[in-house]
Amino acid sequence: MRCCDVEVLWDEMREGIEPRREHVLAHLRRCSTCQNLYRQYEGVAYCLSCLPAVDPPPSLVSRILDHIKASPAYRHHRTDSLARIPSPIGPLAIAWSDSGVTFVGIDRGEDLETARTNIERRLRRPVRVAEPPAWVLEAVTNFFRTWRVDPKSIDVTSLSEFERAALLKAAEIPPGQVRSYGWIAREIGHPQSARAVGQAMARNPVALFFPCHRVVDASGALHNYGYGVEMKARILQMEGYRKA
Question: Whole-prediction pTM value?
Fold first, then answer.
């Protein structure tokens, strides 16, 4: 069994955020899953520490790199393309690969090269500026006409299983309606992970298309949005949302 809270800690470490020791210890004290794993692997770690140190063969690193470069996943996602596309809420920065849209961002007033650098850092792979193909333009047009998108046209395979599940569940929320972080957590089988759902929404690389703007807090307040609460309210109003 995997602990979704630990997955969040790993994601934060990948983003360069060092988890505080007291947070880790507090989690271990309350999480029986992690306690069992700790006891299980504590003995393994001790046995490994008793083994004599062995120097790796000089060719190991190059062989690992060659293996990664030869894998289909590496070839497939080696470079994404990026374009700025107009929309009813302003220009969108959209990246894509052969397998689907990989990034959607609302314009912040930065030049395209700055956006490219930031998206490249976010996706952790090269991104190049290119002309958008017809299917990407059609996806944008269809979204603002129907407020829906085909999940099959989106590629978020680089996200964790928990993040993908949370975003796919958000995509099931009808346009003009909202659901809470807790609702998504319960729907995907992690009822105690509303906070982790919130973090998954905050890291959503395909804003709009996977509609994290339709996710609110338990009281119904809009709570937060990477592009500002005002933009979140504007998009919801365009979809037909009216708070009761």
Answer: 0.68
